[in-house]
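Hi everyone,

Forwarding the result from last night's run.
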Amino acid sequence: MTSEAIALELHQERFHVRFLRWLRRDLRGAISLLALLTIVGLALLAPWIAPYSPSSQDLNAMLLEPSAQHWLGTDDLGRDVLSRLIHGSSLSVYAAFLAVGIALAVGVPIGLLAGFLGGWVDQAISRFIDTLLSFPAIVLAVAVTGAMGIGLTNAMIAVGLVFSPQLARLVRARTLVVRQELYVDAARCFGASTFRLLLKHVMPNAIQPVIVQCTLLLAVALLAEASLSFLGLGAQPPDPSWGSMLARAYMYMEIAPEQMLAPGLMIMITALAFNTLGESLRVALDPTMKGLR
C-alpha cells in the first residue's frame, strides 16, 4: 500500500471517528439527523410504502375518521391521508432542496466576487443585496412567483432567489477575511490567476459558515413552500404537498379538525429537525463555541 493510500485511509478513519464522537456527544443533533433521514427515506420510498395511490378517490368514503383501513382518515375527496402525506414528503423535501440549491448557485459566486474583488464591484453588489433584503421575503417570493407563473418549481426558484442575498452577504463577509490570509498572498506571488485563487484557496475556506446557514435555510424553505402552497401558488392539484394538504383541510376545520393535524405536524417536525441540526453543526464546526456544551 502506497503512502498516499495510507494517508487517505487514516483521514477517512479520523473523519469516521469524529462523526461518531459528534453523534455520541450531541444527542439533539443525532435525533434531528435520524428524523431527517427517516423523512428523506419516506420521500424516496413513497411509491412502494404508501398503502394507496395519493390521487385515488372514493366519494363514498369522504372525511372518514382514522381507522384500521385508513390510519389517518380520508380527505374531502375520499383520498387516503397517510398516502398523500407520504407522497407529499417527496414534493416538500424536493422543494426545500431546490430552493436552497438555487440560493447557493446564485448567492455564493456573487458573494465571492464582491468580497474578493472589492472596490466598485463590492459597492454595487452590496447595494443591490441591501435593496433585496429590504423587502419582506414572503412578499418578494409571491411577486416573483406571480411573474414567473404558478407552480411548485417556479415557486421554489422564487424562494431560492429570495434566499440568495443572505448567502451572498455571508460569503462576502467570510471572503473579506480569507483574502487577507498569508496562503492567499503566497499563491498570488506564485502567479495564481484570480479564478484559481477563488476556486482553490478562497472558496474552500469561506464556505464553512454556508453549510450551517443552508441547513437553517432548508427549514425556512420548507415553511415557504407550505405558505405558498397554502395560498395556491405552489403545488397544484392533484399533486400532494404538506402545504396544499393543510390548505384543503383548513376548509373543513369545523367538521374535521383532525385533517389539519398530520400535515401540520410533519411541517413542524421537519422544520424543527433542520433548525436543531443546523444549531448542532454550528457548535460542532465553530471552535470558539466548543465550551458551550
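The chain has eleven helices and no strands.

Cheers,
N.
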